[in-house]
Fold Eukaryotic translation initiation factor 3 subunit M.
Amino acid sequence: MPGIPRLSLVEGPFEELSSELATYLDTVKGEGSNVASEIAPLLADADKQQEGQQTDKDAVLKKLVTASSVLNSAPERELQAAYNLLIHLISQAPNPEKFLPHVCRYLSAPITSSPHNGIGIALGILGTIFNAVQPDDDTRFHVLLSIVDVIRNSGNYETLRPQLKNLDSWLQEWEMEDEEKRKLFLAVADAASATNEADDNYIYLLKALRTLQSDATSTEARDLSIRALKAAVQIEKHFDFEDLTALDSIQALRKSDQTWSEILELFSSESYDDFQDFKESNPSFCSDNGLNEDTLDRKMRLLTLASLAAQATQTRTLPYSTIAKKLNIASEDVEIWVIDSIRSGLVEGKLSQQRQEFLIHRSTYRVFGENQWREVASRLETWKGSLVNVLAVIRSQKEEFVREKEVELNGGGMQGGQGYRPDRRQRNAPAAIEVE
């Protein structure tokens, strides 16, 4: 059989096209395949059509879809056309959503006939299926899962990134339950992790974790909480842990996994020295859990520097010696660490080599609690007092201006309309305002 040359535009009755695809599947599968003979009795022949009976399309498609797993070994030049034909036939079924997940699963598997172009072909076909389904049909959810799976296996995460902005609106449109949302979020997180996209991996782990807060003490919630926490502490530029500490499942770790709970506490509010004490008490914790100690040490030093800057509320300066001691670094490395902290967005300020001090312009609070609110209230009160003083000065200047204008007007009346304009240097002298 010469194959199926061009089927991007499919024409013909269901019966004829089904028979053609069945014959092609028998050819690809080889000896022993008899799909064509199996569906022949199910197709509407001339006698059935004369009697007004309809072809049992679901029964025909069941056999065709089951046999189509062999298409991944079909010649590359015929592969997409064969899948297009299968999709066209499925679209004519009373319930196409019964068959599309199977096709998606086939496309998620490697295309053995095209090791180099198989990923692109699979994504192209899956994209065709996704766009052919109505926007509010939840069948799109299963197609998208397969697309994400193919991308994860191929490491081509950039292909998926532009579509992620639509993810939340799609899930809302499809009215997905939390379990389905979690499945998709985790699939995206896995795809991001496969290409070392640590930030996106964490973002979608967090989204998945938020779907479990109604059952925060479950084993799944516990495992996912640890996974998210582990990701958070290893992202070099992630310094805000409030998003985690606010979750019930994370709070539940205090009872189920105290060591991980302690890790979160360390990175949320403690110092570099505290982290070293933790490692001494738990010498194998980092290696057992695949944590990079160098990454964690660096982050804890930066966070400690941020805390030091936030605590220096009175002097607004930090001596180099204090920084070196608290970060356990050499004095000559202080400026490098301060610059790294500035680049990370944790602090803003100016280094003074002459005075050996870091002048703080802005600092980041790692934990914003009652003490921080008191400080904000104090600063607002000071600001309010300053504004009151500024307003008093403005009011005084305005009153002085009004008095001067009155003097000018009175002086002008006594001089026959010429107006009296005292010299600027004499305005405040008593003699200058007399009109006698």
